[in-house]
Amino acid sequence: MSESEKPSAYFIPLGGERYQATQAVSGAWDETEQHISSPLGLMVHTVEKAAASRRDDPLQLCRLSFDILGTVPVGEVHVDVEVLRPGRTIELVEARMSHRGRTIVILRAWALAEFATEAIQGSSLPGIPRRDDVPPWDATSVWPGGFIASLTSNRDHHEPGRARGWTSSSLRLVDGEEVSSFAKFCALLDVANGVAVRADPAEVAFPNVDLTASFFRIPQGEQVGYDTHVSFGPTGLGLTHSILHDAVGPVGSLTQQLTVRMS
């Protein structure tokens, strides 16, 4: 594919919260399927759009829990949003992504009102090296697919299952739509499972069946920093745990439950 043929966005809007995935979404485990990271960001974008359309004081999305029910081809998806628990200062929102009537991902998101807590803000979570101090990393040396190829990454790999690094993308999440920095940040969260590989993915499959991100501070900017540990148990279970960072410092945590299978 020539430079002129490469997609400039991950999704093309089709109207009515329907979106066409481009080849930039193609996955790392199977290039005919979507890498789930961009779809998760698309769901956050859709939740934010729905909130802006129904209230003048949108709340802060702070806990995102995605259940990944299956794989999805590089094709059209649809996102529905429903408020499960409405409120003036606290809401629980659910979004469902589907493909041809089959639900692919369910998101439940808590959204909370802003309050002035600058005087007591702080965190004991350690920082990670600035991006400029971390070596560039060609993630395509480990992972195939259009999505991974669309990223710019830096990584400090300590040992199998342990790494710190940064990732960003210059592509638009949705072509022709204004997308928040938070949604773009969330579109890179699932990358964490491939940053600190514990085993060669050509020999061991370890896809995640969920992703839960919790924030104590809304990230600034769109580059994502990961301080990641990957653990495998003796019976096919695995866990990826990351502290998430922006350029200022830690912003929250992320966990991904893995199904680990020898190829």
From TrEMBL:
Signal peptide: none annotated. Residues 154-260 form the Acyl-CoA thioesterase-like C-terminal domain. Residues 27-110 form the Acyl-CoA thioesterase-like N-terminal HotDog domain. InterPro entries: ACOT8-like_C, Acyl-CoA_hotdog, TesB_ACOT8-like_N. It comes from the Bacteria. This is Thioesterase family protein. It comes from Nesterenkonia salmonea. The lineage of its organism: Bacteria, Bacillati, Actinomycetota, Actinomycetes, Micrococcales.
